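Journal club prep, notes for RB
We'll compare a predicted complex against what the paper describes. Inputs for the cobalt (II) ion case:
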Amino acid sequence: MTSPRNRESLSRRRFLSAAGMAGAGLAASAAGARAEAPDPLITEVQDWSRYLGEGVDKRPYGTPSRHEKHVIRRDVSWLTASPESSVNFTPLHELDGIITPSGLCFERHHGGIADIEPAQHRLMIHGLVDKPLVFTMEDIRRMPRQNRVYFLECAANSGMEWRGAQLNGCQFTHGMVHNVMYTGVPLKALLEEAGLKPNAKWLMLEGADSSGMNRSLPLEKALGDVLIAFAMNGEALRPEQGYPLRAVIPGWEGNLWVKWLRRIEVGDQPWMAREETSKYTDLLADGRSRRFTFIMDAKSVVTNPSPQAPLKHKGRNVLSGLAWSGRGTIRRVDVTLDGGRNWQSARIDGPVLDKSLTRFYVDFDWDGQELLIQSRAMDSTGYVQPTKGELRKVRGVNSIYHNNGIQTWHVRANGETENVEIG
Ligand code: MTE
Ligand code: CO
């Protein structure tokens, strides 16, 4: 039985294949297959229906389907000199919803992944405190804990794009971000146990990895929403993400989220560590520098379509993307398909949480015309994501950090999609 609508799309498909469109890999029907000949996938019994599958003893810790092997973190080999001091990227174009699966969270290490035996891990708090303290993991697990979903974005995310469109895929242009649920203890509770001296103003957080990475954190933030986390997405932190303990600094640049956290020193001024002077400082065009630019401003990206996920289907398509802000929640995301001539508000679906990735969609029809796709986020403070041109006017092009400019994807008539800049 063919409904009138099906018949219409069938004849449209015949027309398109006659025009050679099928060769370009474009299917024409709006949804589902409209088989003319009997389809063996329907008429024949398949192996997976004929034979027993693997038993419950085969995968004590589950892994994704073997058909999803391409969904992996990827690095850009020419970006860094060694894999130990390097970065890989979250495959944003393969994901949906707002939670990043633990095994796909991008990694950024300065000295490789520390392999820490949790029973031997210690967190020391000292400096301008009444009572210097050393916590074991057991001590921390006995304190009142919280669960919170937050994005972590490296300040260098999109850094390669400051001087022009460069990397072909949202995995590489925007994949230094992940979003998981953390379980941990508010840092405030640990500091209260130690007791702060009246002149305490800054903290120094230090990792136990071979780089001993450290950063200065203003006390005000430390007494706010900062967590000392031991779990992500319901289980222990992954080694890559700082097992057994990491700092969670909501909305602030990823570099502050010290992994393998072993020491917090309380002081009255910043330490001026390497990571906050030589690095993570923005050199402006006039030679002055922006320092301690902690907050990650509102940003968004269309993840599908994108260079690694081209358009393959004529008719109905789902445009999908992510928006986030270090200042609060996402209030609105606008999307243009024609390079900024017309904008429409995207449909936000799923939880809209403070300092978390937020998922948006635009359901649209594509007839093969070229598209210039952009998304523009607005957060709960009313801040609107700037264009790259607007950013460059204020910040110049010396820096690689804090690029939250609007991304453009060019979709060609054959569906291929490319990283471009317009205007
Ligand atoms: N903490 C330690 N101890 N060592 C590191 O190299 N890298 C920092 C931060 N914390 C780093 C660290 C940087 S630059 C970022 S962006 C985040 O961790 C990355 O966190 P992730 O690896 O969980 O994505
Ligand atoms: Co970083």
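Talking point for the session: The chain has a mean pLDDT of 92.
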